[in-house]
From TrEMBL:
GO molecular function per UniProt: ditrans,polycis-undecaprenyl-diphosphate synthase [(2E,6E)-farnesyl-diphosphate specific] activity; magnesium ion binding
Organism listed in the record: Sphingomonas oleivorans
Name this protein carries in UniProt: Isoprenyl transferase
Described purpose of this protein according to its UniProt entry: Catalyzes the condensation of isopentenyl diphosphate (IPP) with allylic pyrophosphates generating different type of terpenoids.
Family affiliation: Belongs to the UPP synthase family.
Keyword match Magnesium: yes
Amino acid sequence: MASPAGDAVASRSAGGAVVPRHVAIIMDGNGRWAKKRLLPRIAGHRQGAEALRKTLRAAGEMGIEALTLYAFSSENWRRPVTEIADLMGLLRHYLRREIDEIHANGIRLHVIGDYRRLDSDIVALIDEARARTAGNSGMHFVIALNYGAQDEIVRAARALAEEARSGTLDPASIDASAIEARLDTHCLPPLDLLIRTSGEARLSNFLLWQAAYAELLFVDTLWPDFDGAALAKAVAAFGARERRYGGL
Ligand code: IPE
Ligand code: IPE
Ligand code: MG
């Protein structure tokens, strides 16, 4: 990811509206959506997968270059094993069912986070989907799985330390771009807009480095109710913000 102050000019669509290049969403509120309807939590996660489909389609139509969605955090292992199994089952189902369409739409699938710790069949599905869509030239669709921003930064620090120890890197040359080059998001445009649904106003260990100059938007909508119209509203709110990057 390029440095925020450098290459961070959000693109403009043909109509003149400002379109963020890279949008990230903390998809929160599935459990509360289900609870309100006296349904099991899995029903909220299922409806959340529908919201994801709608949002992905709308992001492509709006000309957003990269959409990053927080699907499972490195802290979500603290949930009951039954809920983790339900979430992994849904992920499996999603990867099996949706990759053909994702590929047909020219989308490039990426995963950020330490996803190799997931079940081996899921790792295989992810690797297959990444390889299959790598040559596409459309939108970047990024799923954060077993992702924690602190873990991502720790892994980048470890990579730098190993390069320094082996003599291929001079510690004095380490700067922000050296760190960015070793983050999971290194091939993506700078983060412009970070949305969290469900009324919570915290980052829950998501994209801490990348959010340095992103616009933050907290909306009350529960994730299963999110859709293209909700995304359009968020993008319009982004367009009305003034970004200063420390200047005047
Ligand atoms: C977000 O919804 C989905 C994941 C974290 C996987 P939650 O499951 O956190 O829903 P709430 O916050 O309990 O409503
Ligand atoms: C953040 O939501 C993680 C995802 C959306 C995947 P959580 O529901 O896990 O966050 P906390 O626990 O409320 O901070
Ligand atoms: Mg939650």
